[in-house]
Amino acid sequence: DRVITLLTEKNHSVLLTTVTLLHSIVVEQKQYVRKIRKSVPALVKILKQLFNSGYAPEHDVGGITDPFLQVKIIRLLGDLGKGNEGASEEMSDILAQVATNTEVSRNAGNAILYEVVRAVMKIEAEDTLRVL
What is the DSSP string of 8-52? Predict the structure, then answer.
């Protein structure tokens, strides 16, 4: 519970560390997946903010806002949506938005798009999302 509360932090370093820890717990400690799955709305909100935010020079890599945090969040969402329709439904819209609007002429954009594809293939996605 304490770790999940850190998702409300504004500091990107804290968020990156928190998401990395949560992903490690999901991978290594399967009994906590259900509890961590409750954080999907918060993760989706963070990803939307990153994706829709304007230029922030301290987090910008090649014109993309904090691609490291975006990749980590998308990777965690993929694991949380695996085998769970409710969580998959919550993240489908943002994954589709990221897949269709990410700048792929840069390496950072390609890394994000790669993780979106991996997440879509893991989750209980609709066929229309898989076609993207």
Answer: G---HHHHHHHHHHHHHHHHH-GGGHHHHHTTHHHHHHHHHHHHH
Alpha helices (runs of H) in 82-124, residue ranges in sequence order: 85-101, 107-122
Tokens encoding 91: 């993240």
As a whole number of angstroms, the distance between CA 14 and CA 130 comes to: 32
Among 95, 89, 45, which Cα is nearest to 71's? Answer: 95
Which pLDDT value is given to residue 102?
85
The mean pLDDT value for 7-24 works out to: 94
Residues 115 and 71 sit within 8 Å (Cβ to Cβ): yes
